[in-house]
Structure formats: C-alpha cells, structure tokens
UniProtKB/TrEMBL annotation:
Annotated GO MF terms: monooxygenase activity
Pfam families: ABM
Record's protein name: Antibiotic biosynthesis monooxygenase
Presence of the UniProt keyword Methyltransferase in the record: no
Lineage summary: Bacteria, Pseudomonadati, Pseudomonadota, Betaproteobacteria, Burkholderiales
Keywords from the UniProt entry: Monooxygenase, Oxidoreductase
SUPFAM superfamilies assigned to the protein according to its UniProt record, in alphabetical order: Dimeric alpha+beta barrel
Xref: InterPro entries: ABM_dom, Dimeric_a/b-barrel, Heme-degrading_MO
Length: 104
C-alpha cells in the first residue's frame, strides 16, 4: 500500500472556502486503477494558518504513479492554483509513504 499526502497551510478565515472547494470538486479518483480511499484532513490551527492534508491511499506506488500520469489526474487538477492560491500560504507540500505495517 502507498499513501500520498499534500499539506496545505490555509489562511485563517479561509477554512470554509477551502473545504467547499475540496468537497464539491470531482476528484476522478474512483476511475483510477489501484485507488483505495481519500480523506481530507483538518489539523491544528497555528498563528498564521490552519493545517490541512489531502490523504490518498493506493494499492501500491505503481498505482499512485499511474494516477499522476493519467487524464483523470489532469482533469482533477485542471482548476488548481489560480485564484484558489489566496486560500493558502505557499505551495502544497507533498509527502509519499510506503505502508510497512497495517493493524486492523
């Protein structure tokens, strides 16, 4: 299993707009082979931002890599950036993890 995460530092007062942007968009994830699940996570509030993370679980790294090269990926990210960048500080920070252990 592989977990892909993007961290976003959302400016205070922009949380509702950021959440609306994410929860109403078509992710196109369900049509990609190897996709397991997606979570939008809200973390702690700091002085200058609220931490959010998009958390996507994949069957394996190869499936994630296929997603990043797919038409579905391009469609899901077609409107990324632009005016939406005012909602968060800097660029999203990507982190990818190979799952070593799962306990259920």
């Amino acid at each position: 299993m592989y977990i892909a995460m993007n961290r976003f530092k959302v400016t205070p007062g922009s949380e509702a707009a950021f959440e609306h942007l994410w929860t109403t968009r078509d992710t196109h994830l369900k049509e990609v082979p190897g996709f397991v699940e997606f979570h939008l996570l809200k973390g702690p509030q700091k002085e200058d931002h609220v931490l959010y993370s998009s958390h996507t679980v994949w069957k394996d790294y190869t499936s994630f890599e296929g997603w990043t090269k797919s038409e579905a990926f391009r469609a899901a990210h077609r409107n990324a950036g632009g005016d939406n960048r005012v909602l968060y500080l800097g660029h999203p920070e990507f982190e990818g993890f190979e799952v070593i252990q799962t306990v259920k």
